[in-house]
Amino acid sequence: MVKEKILIVEDNDQNMRLIEMTLGTNNHFLLKATDGEQAMAIAVRDKPDLIIMDIQLPKMNGLEATVRLRQVPDCCYIPIIAVTAYVMKGSKEKAINAGCNAYLSKPINTRQLRETVAELLLQHRKGITPSAIGDSNG
Asked: Would you give per-residue pLDDT tens digits along the chain (138 residues)?
């Protein structure tokens, strides 16, 4: 079985490790970026099966990176999960409007992350454009 590629875009080392440990490397090949510009370059080059995108990033924030990725033909259908610690009214809507398919608030609920990743990867495998999912904060 081919391992699915997941790009984790996170500038905080602890959050990066938590996501890596939650997803494990048995079922997934993990790619990593620490800012929006790196995320764009890796996504265009490696075409991951899913992206976990922190919103607050240096150089280019996660929402801008998402908007730009949605304009790249080879990347426009990659499911993107937005994650953020800065949960305010309208945060989820901003992420969904930028092109994210799911929204999770920090601290990350590892069970919810695994479930969301599994659901979006299943939809991606089946060629279904994922609908917006995620927690109700925001």
From this structure: 678 999 999 999 999 999 999 998 678 999 999 999 999 999 999 999 999 999 999 999 999 999 999 999 999 999 999 999 877 788 899 999 999 999 999 999 999 999 999 999 999 888 876 655 555 444
Total count of domains within the chain: 1
102: containing domain: 4-134
Task: For 104, list phi and psi in degrees, rounded to 5.
Answer: -130, 135
- Annotate 97-120 with b (16+ C-beta within 10 A) or e (fewer): ebbbbbbbbbebeeeebeebbeeb
- Angle, alpha carbons 30-37-46 (nearest 5°): 40
